[in-house]
């Protein structure tokens, strides 16, 4: 069973990263009706992937793998969880903005978005991407037992 949960965790993590990269690419260009719709859908995939990563990750920590005591004494694990929650917090603003586009998109209209708002979203997505890279580094360190103090 642990290999299946490891697989599921990794697939969800790759989907999360892919969705985040796609959001970053979509928000870089001029906003169109099609790209706004794609951003909403991609953000939904991002959110679902994040939920799955968290749920499966917690199952792995508490029921499979090495056990909670091991992970809670691992500096890279604690950093990884902190980065995951930082990404989650940073993603709130873009998600709220994308969700606010529901009505205009349903009416076939482009949402009225100030350039400064799109710039803030771009900046947040960029920070999230950097945090994801650091999270992956922490995962590699954790998997090798680096920083374990138990």
Keywords:
150 residues, mainly alpha, 80% helix, 0% strand
Topology, please?
Layout: H1 2-28, H2 33-63, H3 68-71, H4 75-90, H5 92-99, H6 102-106, H7 115-143
What's the story with the biggest beta sheet?
none
Low-pLDDT residue intervals, each spanning 5 or more residues: none
Radius of gyration: 17 Å
Q: How many DSSP helices?
A: 7
Rough shape?
A: elongated
Number of separate domains: 1
Average pLDDT: 96
| Distance between the ends | 26 Å
Number of extended strands: 0
Structural class: mainly alpha
What does this structure look like?
The protein has helices spanning 2-28, 33-63, 68-71, 75-90, 92-99, 102-106, 115-143. It starts with a helix and ends in a 7-residue tail after the last helix. Helix 1 (2-28) packs antiparallel against helix 7. The protein has one domain (2-143). Helices cover 80% and strands 0% of the residues. The longest helix is centred in the first third of the chain and has 31 residues, at 33-63. The chain has seven helices and no strands. By secondary structure, it is an all-alpha fold.
